[in-house]
Design goal:
The chain has about 350 residues and is an alpha/beta fold. The protein contains eleven helices and nine strands. It is about 30% helix and about 10% strand. Helix 6 packs parallel to helix 8 (about 205-215) and helix 10 (about 265-275) crosses helix 11 (about 300-315).
């Protein structure tokens, strides 16, 4: 029987891993033994930079240009194509008329909740990113005190969502200080951290980070982001176990992506493996129409049979909610399909 190491990492581990991440398409392709770049439509000088930690690259199949993990991170010439309806800000997060961006560092989208932009950086650059064109210069980390002042004044805010970029790219001291500042606001009851790092850079789960989250007054929920079961391995299990043992509620959100996870069995396997590692499936997002991402897009007619097959085969607690986000919406919008005949769905238990 193999006993897995479920202890946190040292801070130098994740910093070293990020320092040595792949930043050039040629280097990543050489590591993966993939040639014939021109024929594969790869963009060697993308406007949206390539960034892939080596630990994530190790999970990609050697020599396979169609590997679903590689397709999430590899820059392609198709990103430069202009597609009608695909725009730089599909969720209109820069639209002040919708109440967004009135305070630097804050997006006040939902009643009782506010989203805080903690950092513009990520540990991996996902090619389908809905904020790949986001004006981070208008939401600088140095303005964090303005965001905290706004939260302190608005006692209707009960939950603060830490986003970015990726909030876990803050160092341990910075994260501890932010959690302490939010804990000091009596009306804030919950802190939600949206992060991809436990998946793409598990070494970020350090002893100090775990202690900070465990000791917080506010209830902490961490929403991780995994799109494919091949992203989950013994390192992600170690990170997630450390977080779960600290009392952190762990949820997952995925994006439905053509050529990545656009078949029911892949998503079923993902839900089951997530549960094995202590995470509940939460959302399955329809992709946003972001400029440069049209090659990932599925419409409702393509998504329907995938989700119906998932609903048939998964128990209810392992079925993520299929949603889309609309500009100015008060919450995520469920995607509801007209049932095709014959269907005889029963409530999953």
């Amino acid at each position: 029987m193999i006993t897995l190491n479920h202890t946190p990492w040292h801070p130098s581990d994740w910093q070293s891993e990020l320092k040595h991440a792949f930043r050039q398409p040629e280097a990543l392709l050489e590591y993966l033994d993939i040639a014939n770049v021109a024929a594969n439509g790869i963009d060697l000088q993308p406007d949206f930079a390539l960034l892939v930690p080596r630990g994530y690259a190790q999970r990609i199949e050697q020599g396979n240009i169609q590997d679903p993990l590689l397709r999430q991170v590899l820059s392609l010439q198709s990103e430069n194509e202009q597609t009608p309806g695909f725009v730089m800000d599909p969720l209109q997060e820069g639209n002040a008329e919708l109440g967004y961006g009135q305070t630097p560092g804050l997006l006040h989208k939902y009643q009782g909740r506010v989203l805080m932009i903690t950092t513009p950086a990520c540990a991996i650059n996902c090619r389908y990113c809905f904020r790949r064109h986001f004006p981070y210069t208008d939401h600088k980390p140095k303005d964090q005190h303005l965001a905290l002042e706004a939260i302190a004044k608005d006692t209707s805010i009960h939950e603060v969502i830490l986003s970015g970029g990726d909030p876990l790219l803050m160092n341990d001291d910075g994260m501890a200080a932010l959690i302490q500042d939010l804990d000091a606001l009596a009306h804030v009851k919950r802190i939600r951290i949206h992060t991809r790092l436990p998946i793409v850079l598990p070494q970020r789960v350090t002893a100090d980070l775990v202690a900070t989250l465990e000791d917080a007054r506010c209830k902490i929920t961490m929403v991780i982001h995994s799109n494919h079961p091949n992203e989950l391995d013994e390192t992600t299990e170690r990170a997630l176990t450390c977080l779960r043992r600290a009392g952190i509620t762990l949820l997952n959100q995925s994006v439905l992506l053509k050529g990545i996870n656009s078949d029911a069995q892949t998503l079923i396997n993902l839900s089951e493996l997530l549960f094995d590692q202590g995470v509940l499936p939460y959302y399955l997002h329809m992709p946003d129409k972001v400029a440069g991402t049209a090659h990932f897009y599925l419409d409702d007619s393509e998504a329907q049979p995938i989700y119906e097959a998932m609903r048939e085969q998964l128990p209810g607690y392992l079925l993520p909610r299929l949603v889309r986000e609309l500009p100015g919406g008060i919450a995520k919008t469920p995607v509801n399909f007209e049932q095709r005949q014959p269907l005889n769905f029963q409530t999953n238990i």
